[in-house]
Amino acid sequence: MGFRIRALSRLLLQVLFFISLESAKAEDFYNISNVGSGKQERTCNLFEGKWVFDPSLPLYESSSCPFIDPEFNCQKYGRPDRSYLKYTWKPDFCDLPRFDGLELLRRWRGKKIMFVGDSLSLNMWQSLTCMIRASAPKTKTSIVRRESVSTVIFQDYGVSLLLYRTPFLVDVVKERIGRVLKLDSIEGGSVWKGMDVLIFNSWHWWTHTGRSQPWDYVQVGNTVRKDMDRLEAFYQGLTTWARWVEMNVDPTKTRVIFQGISPTHYEGKDWNQPKRSCNGESVPLSGSLYPAGTPPAAEILKRVLSRMRKPVFLLDITTLSQLRKDAHPSTYSGEHGRDCSHWCLPGLPDTWNELLYAAFTM
């Protein structure tokens, strides 16, 4: 009887948790810095639109950029088509400004910009370094790779683009019992201080189980568990991250951006083709809506941001990325197997960085 009561209690808590997410109004989800000014703010949502063919793309070639990891270099590993390189994002009521790496270097002169997160942060960080290098090919660059932090420096402008690898944002600590995911601890955040721009990301690793799961136990306060509902864990981890931002970020000195939830395309049923995956896909989905709808993780992220007092710009890439079932490495990622999680470079992350550029220039 006691076991049934505990099980029913856990189920009730989960139901109440998701009801709280669903009941929130759309406007409650956004605590963000506005893009644009005046009348444009009311009409231009950069994240609502469609994909259109653009023969002038890509902005760079993978063979000319030294910063791309092999698993993202789809052309190197024999991807036969190039159509996925030729699509640009067109917002419904405005145009994205053309990316200008020199202008970004001028705006960021002497500044430190840090990406904080998992391999999707790596994807975006490498894309941005390639885009800037293509815009400013004569600018001297250097790269330093360390265990948790990698840095590309554009020396003529004193601009440092850093990447700090931390899949959960909160800490994973080796203890006597094993690796413990601590949902209320961010000791690693000390490295993030002193940056001019912080671009966060997390979600990709929260659903991993079995051998690919990088922790053995999960801890909240003094309670240590073998496992817990992953969406609830994500919510608690993000809440800890939000508390860190509130306590440690001065908005007059540091701009905070959250990269948003990057989708996967392993299950074709999500776009009404149940026998498909990202393998062999060569064109985006048409229109502006994704059949499977918004993933719960994206709703949780918006809910957490809505409760924050400090300004955070949500780079809301989820829906536009859901439409790009064609842009994954799939089988063209070297020895990494079928990859429907990450993205080819050049490719979709370039659009994420065009949206980032818009956030700084519009």
TrEMBL record:
Keywords: Membrane, Signal, Signal-anchor, Transmembrane, Transmembrane helix
UniProt entry tagged with the keyword Transmembrane: yes
GO MF assignments: O-acetyltransferase activity
Main location: membrane
One Gene Ontology term, aspect cellular component: Golgi apparatus
Protein name as annotated: Protein trichome birefringence-like 38
Protein family: Belongs to the PC-esterase family. TBL subfamily.
Cell compartment(s), UniProt: Membrane
Secreted found in the keyword field: no
Signal peptide location: 1-26
Trichome birefringence-like N-terminal domain mapped to chain residues: 43-95
Membrane topology reported for the UniProt record: Single-pass membrane protein
Domain (Trichome birefringence-like C-terminal): residue spans on this chain: 96-358
